[in-house]
Specification:
The chain contains twelve helices and no strands. It is mainly alpha-helical and about 220 residues long. The protein folds into two domains: about 80 residues, Endonuclease Iii, domain 2 (Orthogonal Bundle); about 110 residues, Orthogonal Bundle (Endonuclease III, domain 1), CATH 1.10.340.30. Helix 3 crosses helix 4, helix 3 packs antiparallel against helix 9 and helix 6 packs across helix 7. The protein is globular and about 55 Å long.
Length: about 220
Amino acid sequence: MKEHEIHQIIPILRETIKQWPPALVDGMAQTERNPYKILLATILSLRTRDSMTARVVPKLFALADMPGEMVKHSPETIAEVIYPIGFYHNKARQIVEISQILLTEHDGQVPSDLEALLKLPGVGRKTANLVLTACFQKAAICVDIHVHRISNRWGYVQTKTPEKSEFALRDKLPLEYWLQYNALLVTFGQNLCTPISPWCSKCPLTQFCARVGVTKSR
Ligand code: SF4
């Protein structure tokens, strides 16, 4: 794709994804702006299917939905609640540690700057950027596997890792699209530009897409 074509692609994506439900965390962000809940839901969703995360998130928040309540529970108790989510033992420990740090260092609030978020256990750039955009509307680009894969398939970036894609996108994606870019591409990637065998025959972006690395499609 040519760089300026992003201005045609984004409106097409906005229309196309209306037919599908939003990805879990984006859906949460549309209905509530509780940074603590969105942070924990994002951690739970890592390496886990949205359908599984969606079942577990309400159970965790029924147990506790504020740091002061969460620290009353042991990692073992939380692990039982969030099982069978991926890496549930690690995530349970991180949830307690994060809650403790928020209480002692941030007055029980989720910080709204990247450096502070990245110091929290289990929080990488993807999670931190998602919290910044979804909760605080700060200029950031959350790059997960869908954003990385699709941006490369289009030929918009040429990168090997999501982190490198983030920095490449920060150089060329117009600022006006930063907040939305993740939500648009995640939903598009879950439903149409899928990891294996994307639905190119149904895709409204074929005229723009270089289909880099696509060897099999439907
Ligand atoms: S043409 Fe195929 S590879 Fe390109 S965006 Fe559409 S579904 Fe994805």
